[in-house]
C-alpha cells in the first residue's frame, strides 16, 4: 500500500504517523521546543529536557535543530530497523532522532542539489563524536553504494578509530575526548552513493603529549601500543610494557581507565589502518615516531658545574636517534644548544636546563603534531574521489560533518580554551546569520511581512578577538614578535592598553570590586555570548609561538623516516622568516571553515551532557542550565519563535487535520490553500493566530496547535474505522482486480487460440483451393507434383463416392462414371465387385433354389434367343410338379412300383394318325417317361432310346419326343402340347441327360409316325394359339406373336 507517495507497511507506518510525538506531548513534554507555551522560560525549557531524558527520549527539536542529551548508556534506538524507519520520512512525522536529521540532510542534498553540512557542537563529553559516528553509520548503511567503491563506506567508518587513537584522550570530562576539531566532507555522486571523503583537522591539543592534568591521560595510542603491541614489536621499539615507565604517561597518574580496553582498541586500530590502506612500512614508521616520543619524555638532563646542560640518558638518546632515523650526535647537540644568527654570523650557545627541557618537549609536540596531520592527509588520500569516478562526481554534492570542541570553561582556562571559545563564537555567529537568513528567506518566499527579531549579535565579541591590529590575536602575535623582554604579563598589559575599554573585556585592574574578587591578576575576562570566561595569560606567548628551535628542525629534516622528512621540509629549516603564530593560523583556518560552512545548507545538532560523572539516568540541572546557556539554545528558540511557533506545508497540515472538517474529509480536491482556509475557519482560528503563506500555514501560538491536536485525538477512533473501511475496501477491490485480470488473461488466451485455429483452417483451405485449382489446370498431364493432389483427391472422392453407391444386387448393372484417370481401375473394380456379389449370392443360395437355377440355366442354354416362349418363362419359377399326387391314379402309381414320379403334367397328345388331341398326363421318372390316360399307362418312353426332342421357335406349347419307330414297343414320336413347354422340356432333357438332344426348329418339325412314314407339323405366327389339321395332313400350329414389349 502507498501512503503519501511512500511504500509503507500499513500497520507499522500508519501507526507511526498516528503516534507522532505531538500526540505524546502530555506524556513526555514537547518534541519540539518551539511548541513550548512559555518559550522565554529557561526553567520550562530545562523541565522539558528533563522529562524527556527520564523517558530515555534524548532527542528534542528546536525547529530543525536537534538537541541531544548524552544518555551515557546504550539505547535501543540505533538499529538497522530504526534506520529504515527514518528513511524518507518527513521530519515532523516521527519522533526526533539523529537519523531524522541525517536523512533530512541527505534528502535535501539529493532533491535541492545543494551542499549540506551538519554542525555538531557541545561540551566535551556531550556526545558530539558519537553523534557524528551515528550519522556516518547511517549513511554507510542506508545510502546506495557505488559498485566501484564498495569499500569507501568501510574506510569512512574506519577513519574514526584511527583518528581517535591518535587524537583522542581520556580527560576528566570524557574518557574518549577528541583533542582536535574535525570537519569531514562526504561526497556523494548524482545517484546519492558516497564516492569520497575529506577531513580537515583543527588545533590538536599538542600540549597533552608532554603534560596531562591529574586524572587525565595522554593520547590513546601510547597506551594502546604498550598494552596491545606484540613483544617483538615492543622489543624492536625498545619499549617496556608498562606505561608507568614513561614520564610523558605518568603526569596525570591515570594509566588505566575502566571504560577503555587498550588491548582491543589496538587491534581495532591496526585493522583500521590496514583497511584505510596504510602499508606495513608506513605503520612501522608511524610507530617508530610514537615510540620516539615516549623515549624523548624519558630523556633527562643534568646541569654541569659551569651551568652547562648535558643529557644523562645516553641510551634513550640513541634509541630516539635510531627510531627517528636522525644523527645521534646532531640530535644531542640540538637538544642542548641553540643556534643564533647575529650580524650574519651563526653562533651556538648552550641552553639552560629549563630551556633544554622545553626544547625536548617542543620536539615531542612538534613531531607528534605533524605526524597527526600526516595521518589525516594519508586518510584523505584513501578517501579521495578516485579518478575513475571523477565523471560521476560532476553532479555530486557534499555533506559536511563538523565535530568540534564546544564551549569550554575550566577552573583555569588557558590559550587552548581561548581558541576553542573563539571558535564557538564564530560558529554562533554563523548560526545566527544562517538561521535568521533562512527564517527571513522563508518569510519572503511565503510572502509574509518580516518582523524584526530581538537577538544578541556576537559580532562585537568576534571583532574583539580577531580584528586586525586591534584584536586580541593581533596583539598576542605582536607581543610574540616584539624584540626585547616579552612575557605573558606584558601581553596582558598590552591588552589593557589596547582593548581595555571594550564592553566585553575585563581584567583585574579594570574590573569593579565584585568581579575583582574572583579574578587573579594574571587573568583577563571575556564576556562571551554564552557567558563570562576568565583566561589565565600564563603560557599564552609560548603556546602561540609554538617554537621548535632551528637546529632541532634541521636535525629532523635530515630524518630518513619518510613521515618526518615529509612533515619537516628542508626549506622550513633554511627559511629565516617566522612562520605564522598558532592563534593566527587557527584564525585563518577558522575563516576557511566559515567559508566552507557558509556555502552549505546547515543543520544543527546541539549536544548536552547531563552530568559530570558520566552516569546514566542522572540529570544535573545546574550543569544542563549552564550548557543550555553556552549553547545559546534559548537564543535559538527565541529566533525560531520570533514570528510563528509552528509552520507546516499546506499538504502536510491538511493531510493531518483534514478529518476535523467535513469539507476536507476524506479528501480535499480544490486548491490546497482553500482547503487549509476551510479547515482553519471550521476550527475557529482567529485572524491573529495564523497566517497563510504561499505554501505553508504559520501558526503563532502553540496553544492553537494543541487544541487542534486534541480535537484530532478525539476524532481518531472515527478515523480508524474509516481507515479500516477503506483498507478492507481496497483489499476487496484489489482482489477483484486480480480475478478480473485473471479472467481477461484466460479469455484472451482462449480467443487467441480460437483465432489462431481459424486462421490456420483458412490458410489450409486457401492452400487446398490453390492446389485444387492448379491440379485442375494440370489435370490432363501425367501424375506430377502440380496435379498430384488434385488427382489424388478426384480419385479419392470417386472411390469414396463409389463405395457408397456400389450396386447391391447382381442384377443392378449401374456403375458410377469414373474420372478419366480411373477408368481402368473402375472396370476392374466393377468386375471384382460383380464377382464378389455373385460369389456371395451363390453362397447364399438354398439347394431348392440351386436346383431351380440349374434348371433355369439349362433352359437358358437351350432356349435363349431360340424360342419366343422363353422370355416369358424366365420370370416364372419351375415347379416340382404340375400335378398333385392325388391327381395321379393310384393304379398307375402301383404299376410304376418303386419308380418315383419326378415330374407330372397334364398334356394334350396328338395322335400320329390324324393328330387327334387326347388329354393325357405325362409323368417323368428317373429313367423313363410315361403317358398316362387316367389309369392306364399308354406309352412308356425310355430315355435311353430318346432320339431327340423338338420344339418350335414360336410361342406355342408343342413338343415332339422322337423315339425310334423300329422298336415295336414304341409307337413312334409323341406329339404333345402342354402349357409349360419350357419347363417340361428342360426337366425332361435333364432327367434324360439329353439336353443337347433338344432341337428348336424355326420352321416345321418332322414327326416319325410309323416306320418310314412321316408327319409334319407346321408352325405359323398368328393372332392366337390354335392347333388344327391343315393341308396335306400337316398339323398346323398357329402361335401368337410376342407382345411387343
Ligand atoms: N547517543 C549515545 N548513546 C550512548 N552513549 C553515548 C551517546 N553519546 C555519547 N555517549 C557516551 O558519552 C561518551 C562521550 O561521548 P563523545 O561523543 O566522545 O563526546 P564528545 O565528542 O562530545 O566529547 C561516549 O564515549 C559514550 O560513552
Ligand atoms: Mg569528541
TrEMBL record:
It holds the Pfam family IQ. One of its GO terms (cellular component) is microvillus. The keyword GTP-binding does not apply. InterPro entries: IQ_motif_EF-hand-BS (IPR000048), Kinesin_motor_dom_sf (IPR036961), Myosin_head_motor_dom-like (IPR001609), Myosin_TH1 (IPR010926), MYSc_Myo1 (IPR036072), P-loop_NTPase (IPR027417). It is found in: Cytoplasm, Cell cortex. Its main location: cytoplasm. Keywords: Actin-binding, ATP-binding, Motor protein, Myosin, Nucleotide-binding, Repeat. It comes from the Eukaryota. GO terms for molecular function: actin filament binding; ATP binding; microfilament motor activity. ATP binds at residues 122-129. GO terms for biological process: actin filament organization; actin filament-based movement; endocytosis; glomerulus development. The keyword Electron transport does not apply. PANTHER family: MYOSIN, UNCONVENTIONAL MYOSIN-IC. This is Myosin Ic, paralog a. It comes from Nothobranchius furzeri. The gene is myo1ca.
